[in-house]
Structures are given as structure tokens and as C-alpha cells.
Task: structure prediction
Amino acid sequence: MNVYDGWRIVAMLDARGMTRTEDVSDADIIILNTCAVRAKATDKVYSALGRIRLVKKPNALMGIVGCVARESGADAFKRVPDLNFVLGPQSYHKLPEILNDPNTRLFNIELSGLEKFDEMPQMEKSPLVTYVPIQEGCNHCCTYCIVPYTRGREISRSFVDCIRDVEQAAKNGAVEICFLGQNVNGYKYTDENGKTYRLSDLIRTAAKIDTVKRIRFTSSYPTEMTDDLIDMFATEPKLLPFLNMPIQSGSPNVLKRMNRPYDLNQYMDIVRKLKLARNDIQISSDFIVGFPGETDDDFEQTLQIARTIKYINSYSFKYSPRPHTAAAIMPDQIPENIKSKRLAILDAELNEIQRAFNESCVDKTLTCLCEGPDKTGRHLVYRTPYMQQCIVARPDGEPKQLCDIVITAANKASLRGKIAD
Result:
């Protein structure tokens, strides 16, 4: 979501005749687009602002947008007096106000619904992989999560607007569409005629566009993985056989304290349905270790679910208390050293599972999307249907956007391959 927001901010400033610079000391406007999911991310924002204020031009405008702006509010100005603007994740379309009058100190962290999507200009060029937000916010209110505070309650964009963005992206060069939302599979929009649209309808309609070759979505909530959406994996070949469906913990006790209203049997049943729909589908997950009250037995159950599902790519983190969340004031907070130890154990387990899957791909031929050259320029970086990075020797001539790649080697982090004859 932040990557998408960053694209739109850049497009807005480009339209006003501005150009990007990699040199902070040369910039006329400096914007930190921020995430507040974990405390470490927030800390990094203020550390970066401290460094930037020492090297920026005296008259350069500096500000923060996104979730840290919403989390910090007016206190951001107290922490960094040099700030010129603080704009929440649904307010960054107001940046032109401060560009029109640089003396203005702009502050807006209101949750104003979908206004930004209406006010931002259309993208004139789209990346090969284009993100299309279809909803914002979340109604699940997990006890550890700040999203309902920073992004607001769940709200879905109109079906027509979402498809318009897909069509525009395809016209501008997109080959892969990734539907985005904090609770993307909770998408539900009812039009003025009473017709209700779900994520499956968006996928089905987007797949009819010839130049769209790959479709995926993130991030999914388990109980919103409805049968109509599961069926799409069986019937729509453009939908990639890869799904991020966070479980967060393998312990029923921890899931209850997290306010994640599903049990392991429900979760496993969804996985079984997905594999029946498409036998080559693979799952990734998110994990939180060291949640308040997590026992050694709770943690062992998390290890067990990871071994059972065999997640091919996962994001795991130490629990981080966030303001405005119920878990931050729960008793039995886990000491940092125990959290770190458990995270290291889980990461080692997940890394071995990922390595084993990557190695199982050797000698297979996968249709991959070219992301461009690597840093050396001697190789091309491709992305497999499972979001693995595959490095290929650069051929003579212009590389194809989509190409069959024979996988020749693998490690934990990436694959090596050659273009199929």
C-alpha cells in the first residue's frame, strides 16, 4: 500500500513539473512515506528526519505522510520543529496546498474515506507490476494492530473505479495486477442497483483484458477466504498459484488473545480447499512471536503449524506494542531476550522450509516475469509465479516480459535459471 501511495505522490509532483533527486541536500521538497505497523518502523522515521534536517537546504520543505503521521499527530511538530507538513495516509493528496504556499504549515490526519483516489491524477505510465488498491482499513481489530487507527475502518472502492484503474494500468504497460487492501479479500461493494461485487468479480473482469497476464492479491484474512474466491484458483489461469494468508500464531490461546476469530481446523480446512482447487498452489504467512502471555508450548505450536503447512515464504516479527491497541496494556508482556530467541528459532525453521521449496524447483520450467537488470547489468531478474527471485544471464537483444525459465540452481533467497529453448 505504501509503494502505491509513493507512486501516486511522485505522479502528482511530476505533474507539477518537479523531478526526483537522489541527493537529499539538493531537494526542494522531502517526503517520508511512513509505516507504523511496528515501533521500529516509527523510530526509523524520526532517526531519518534527524539526519535529513542537518543536510537539507534551509528553504527545503520537509514532511511526513502515511501511518506515522496519523499515529504521531501534532506531536510530530514538537519532536521535529523543522517539519512543514504532517499528512495521514488518506490526506497526502493535499500536498499541493503547501506547494502553492510554502509558508503554510500543513497538518491533516483525518480519515476521510476514499477522497484521495478521486482527487489524484491518473498515472501516465504504469510499472509492469501495478498495484491497484480496492479497499482501505480493517474491521477485524486484532489486539496488536494499529491499522484500524491509522487507516480507519474498512471501506471498499467502487467496482467501476477499481476496474478503471486496472484498464488504465494495462493501457500504460502493466502485465501483472496486484489487488491491494489491508483486508483485500474482504472487498465488498454494492452499487446503486443493488448488485454486490466481491474480489472474485474483480479478478474475473481483470482477467478478460488480454494484456494482463498475471493477477494476484494481498493481504488476505483467513475467514474472508470465501468459496467463490477459492474457486477462482481452479478456474482462472491468470491468477497466480500463490497466496499470502497470515496465521500469526499456531496457538489457539494466542489467537484468542489476538482477537483472530478462527481456529486451526478452520485454517487447515481453507488450505485443503485451496489445494483441491489448484494442486500447485503455495501459501505464505505472517508470524508474530512473543505476544503477551505466549508460553513455550504456545510457541511450539507455532513451529508445528509452520512445519505442517510448509509456508514457502513468510514474514516473522517480534511482537511490538503499538499505541491505541489492546495488547499494549495486556499483562504478561514477554521479555525482549525471550522474543529474540524465539524469533531466531522460528526464522531458522522457516528458512529451511523456504530453501527446500526453492530446491524442489530445480529442473522445472516456470513462466516468469522480467523485472529488469540486476545491479551489475550482466543479469536479468525474473519473478516466478511464487514470487521467488530468479537470476538469469542477460541474453542478446531485448528480453521478453514473460519468459519460460528453466531453474538450474537454488538457495534460500533466490533461484538461478536459463531461458528455455
Summary: The longest strand covers residues 365-373. The domain at 365-419 is CATH 2.40.50.140 (OB fold (Dihydrolipoamide Acetyltransferase, E2P)). DSSP finds 14 helices and 19 strands in the chain. Residues 336-360 form the longest helix (25 residues).
